[in-house]
Amino acid sequence: MSRSTQSGPSQRMLRVGEQVRHALSETLQRGEIIDPVIENSVVSVSEVRMSPDLKIATAFVSPLGAGDDSAVVEALNRHAKFIRGRVSGALRQMKYMPEFRFRLDTSFDNFAKINDLLRSPEVARDLGDGKNNDKDEN
């Protein structure tokens, strides 16, 4: 029986994604990757999304302290096979070791934009306290 993937990730995909995220974070913390771009920044793994067959893991990362975030993501993608080998010990319960793909996490930037919009004078005026709207209707 086939299940629609439009309803969102399954519980298994979410659980495995979280396990992969922890394993990736530990590997990056240990500093085993010899690359000057990665060594000079702290990389936070905010989320890992697994493909339905659990063979591809897309890791969303936020480089902290790096001048060029895209350079860090490119360096991580260059070392994806090495990282895959280092993470394999922590994920030995998996039948197949997933292929890693790294993407820049822009969710924090989006949250900041939404926060700025909500604090703008135009939105504050429209939201108001709700008391003036009742008086206008009478």
> What is the helix tally?
7
Q: Give the topology string: H per helix, E per strand.
A: HHEEHHEHHH
Q: Which parts are unreliable, with pLDDT below 50 for 5 consecutive residues or more?
A: none
The outline comes out as flat
Beta fraction: 15-25%
How many DSSP-defined strands?
A: 3
On the 0 to 100 scale, the average pLDDT is: 84
Global structural class: alpha+beta
Radius of gyration: 21 Å
The percentage helix is 40-55%
Gap between N and C termini: 59 Å
**Largest sheet: spatial strand order:** 1-2-3
Major sheet characteristics: 3 strands, mixed
Q: What does it look like?
A:
By secondary structure, the chain is α+β, with helices and mostly antiparallel strands. Helix content is 49%, strand content 17%. Strands 1-2-3 form a 3-stranded mixed beta sheet. Strand 1 and strand 2 form a beta hairpin. The longest helix has 20 residues.
Walk me through the topology.
Layout lengths: L10 H20 L5 H4 L2 E9 L5 E9 L4 H10 L1 H8 L11 E6 L2 H12 L2 H7 L3 H7 L1
Parallel strand pairs: 2-3
Antiparallel strand pairs: 1-2
Descriptive keywords:
single chain, 138 residues, alpha+beta, three-stranded mixed beta sheet, 49% helix, 17% strand
Summarize the structure.
The chain has 138 residues and is of the alpha+beta class. The chain has helices spanning 11-30, 36-39, 69-78, 80-87, 107-118, 121-127, 131-137, and strands at residues 42-50, 56-64, 99-104.
